[in-house]
Every structure is written in structure tokens, then in C-alpha cells.
């Protein structure tokens, strides 16, 4: 059980949250990971506004994250266009979104994560996306999230603070929930999040 320490700074708290929750999800077995991924597909299939999306951004799992590949496969099978985040080559800390298909040429970025090879023909404006499925390290019952610390998704989702842009939907394992998240002013709370056991609606 994670415990907050009142005398810690927000930065220190978030660092400890990341360390503890990342370790917890790394301990999940392959069977648990597969079951979680399959349950997420069913939750999306049961939610009309998610199932009917035309263009969605997802991600490739890393470091014990909930693996959305079965969801990607499901969207492909249903004719939905899928996009993946790509580190912006000229604007540090920002993301681009490129079309992802079974035949997409992939490269490894500076974090060791596979992403589509940069090709302007595959680029889509994030404003044209319906949903951005968002990875995270931890979340609470108010929709607050902690990411990996780079701020990539906070920058990407900043228009959502004013109700603009694609709808962000978090994906997480059950073990990533905390009673409360230490937040900063730049954090973008999620309106919606899926875990294997629950479909959360925060706003």
C-alpha cells in the first residue's frame, strides 16, 4: 500500500509513486497482462462512443504498461484508423501522431520504444483524432494521473482543459490506482479511464 509523506515535496512524492507503481505492474504475470488486455477490449466494445470512433491514437506498451495491442487489433478489424505517438523531431517534449497499420515501418526512439518511421504522408493532426488513449503510471478516483515525467501527454492534451481536441481516455491496470495523486498546475485530469475491472467516468 502506497503511503504519502506530508513533509515530502510534490516532486519527491511523484518520484516515489512512479517507482512503486512501475514495480507493481512489472510484477504482473503474462497471464494477468493478457487477461487485462482482453478485458479492456470488451470494455471498449461495450461503450458506444469508444467503439464507434473513426480515428484513435493508442500506444505500444513499455515497462509493464497495460498492453493495448489486442485493442489495436480489434479497432483494425472494425475499420477504425489507428495512430501512434511519435516524438516530434524539431519540437522537444511534443508528440506527433502517425497512422499505424500491420505494415507500418517501425523504428526505435531515444527511449527504446518502437514508433512509426517519420513519414509526413502518415501524419494526422491531433484535432482530427476522436480519442487519444493515454498511458499512465498512476491515477486516482478524481481522474488525476501521473505519467512518466516527460510531460508529453500533458502538452498533447492541454486543449482538453477547455474541452477542445480529442477525448483523452486513460488505460491502466487495477494496481495503478491510488487514493490520491499529488498534482501540479500543468496536469490535465482525465475525463475517462479504463481498467480491467472498471470503466471510470470523471466528467
Key attributes of the depicted protein:
203 residues, alpha/beta, Rossmann fold, 8-stranded mixed sheet, two-stranded antiparallel ribbon, 5 helices, globular, magnesium, EC 6.3.3.2
Explain how this protein is built.
By secondary structure, the protein is of the alpha/beta class. The model has no long low-confidence stretch (mean pLDDT 91). The protein contains five helices and twelve strands.
Summarize the structure.
With 203 residues, the protein is α/β, with parallel strands linked by helices. It is 25% helix and 22% strand. Helix 2 packs parallel to helix 4.
Q: Secondary-structure blueprint of this entry?
A:
Blueprint: H1 10-26, H2 30-45, H3 48-51, E1 55-57, H4 69-77, E2 81-87, E3 95-100, E4 106-108, E5 114-116, E6 123-124, E7 131-134, E8 138-139, E9 145-146, H5 152-156, E10 167-171, E11 192-195, E12 198-201
Parallel strand pairs: 1-2, 1-7, 7-10, 10-11
Antiparallel strand pairs: 2-3, 3-6, 4-5, 8-9, 11-12
Family: Belongs to the 5-formyltetrahydrofolate cyclo-ligase family.
Keywords: ATP-binding, Coiled coil, Ligase, Magnesium, Metal-binding, Nucleotide-binding
EC number: 6.3.3.2
